[in-house]
Amino acid sequence: MTETETETEQTESYPPLKVVREIPMPSSISPVAQAVLGYLAANPMSSTPPALDDIAGWEAMRQKSDAMMMEMVFAGQDPAAFPSRLLGGVTVYDVEPEDFDAASPLICLYIHGGGLTCGGGPLTPLMGRLGANDTGLRTISVDYRMPPHHPYPAPLDDCLGAYRGLLETTAPENIVVAGGSAGSNLAAALVLRGRDEGLPLPRGLVLLTPEIDLTESGDSFETNMGIDAMLTQRLTSANLLYANGHDLADPYLSPLFGDFSKGWPPTFLQAGTRDLFLSNAVRFHRALRTLGLPAELHVFEGMPHGGFGGITPEDEEIRLEVRRFVAGL
């Protein structure tokens, strides 16, 4: 019997843990954060995904999700205030944080989130502004192509193309790559693939509540199911749509499974105790620290996927920690 067969037999011999209980509102978080959790519990964000071949269904879901994001997060903001340009043949937007320090030589290449299917187009500069405020850096927000019309590898090709374009004018030691959720997947994947293709590493990498394991194999995908008020279900369908028939465990699809021994930049990881993706951040952090690579993990109390909407003291703590990390690179 092989070692793998032995491990499988041992795992299958353990009965599943069955727990039925009510999870109260955490009293350990700020009142504003409690209000956000209460609102999310009463207004679930997730919806049943369409069939993989239902192109119109995916388009409708994207439009609904983007409209909800515009209303809830970016109300009153005008995407037209941020003109687009091409960088490495890819559409990008230049944005600045509210307290921009023009003296800093650093620039952030930001990859927006949205479950690999939403959040692009006119939302790209607004999402990038959030990233700029987190890092405090002048930011380039990438409007990468997405499924259903442009599945893998098109989105990663675009992110890598923008990085190549930026390297033509900016030294790698002045580049910080950042992303949130699905954007963290693409941010880590572009560093991994770029390194494998001979490109220099950026100065640092910021991954917020990262979706870096599309196989969804971590423990928190079970333990935080039904507890995460933002992600009320797995993103399996979107992951399969994005992968377009490729192996979900491929490191360019799930950077968690990459080989980091060939070089990796200092990395900032953030998640919450109620985040469905908590295991992603924990496992990525351990993978880097096992090799002695510089990596920070910040887990916030009671926080679901994506934080508390950017309006709570806890969200401000994330911003302060990210800026401290960037300043120390």
Summarize the structure.
This protein is α/β, with parallel strands linked by helices and 329 residues long.
Task: Explain this structure.
The chain has 329 residues and is of the alpha/beta class. It has a single domain (30-72, 79-327), classed as 3-Layer(aba) Sandwich (Rossmann fold), CATH 3.40.50. The chain is 37% helix and 13% strand. The chain contains ten helices and eight strands. It has helices at 3-13, 31-42, 55-72, 123-135, 154-167, 182-196, 220-223, 236-243, 278-290, 313-327; strands at residues 84-87, 90-95, 107-111, 138-142, 175-180, 204-208, 267-272, 295-300. The protein has an eight-stranded mixed beta sheet with strand order 1-2-4-3-5-6-7-8, with helices on both faces. Strand 1 and strand 2 (90-95) form a beta hairpin. Helix 5 crosses helix 6 (182-196). The longest helix has 18 residues, at 55-72.
What keywords describe this structure?
single chain; 329 residues; alpha/beta; Rossmann fold; 8-stranded mixed sheet; 10 helices; 8 strands; globular; disordered N terminus
Lay out the secondary structure.
Elements: H1 3-13, H2 31-42, H3 55-72, E1 84-87, E2 90-95, E3 107-111, H4 123-135, E4 138-142, H5 154-167, E5 175-180, H6 182-196, E6 204-208, H7 220-223, H8 236-243, E7 267-272, H9 278-290, E8 295-300, H10 313-327
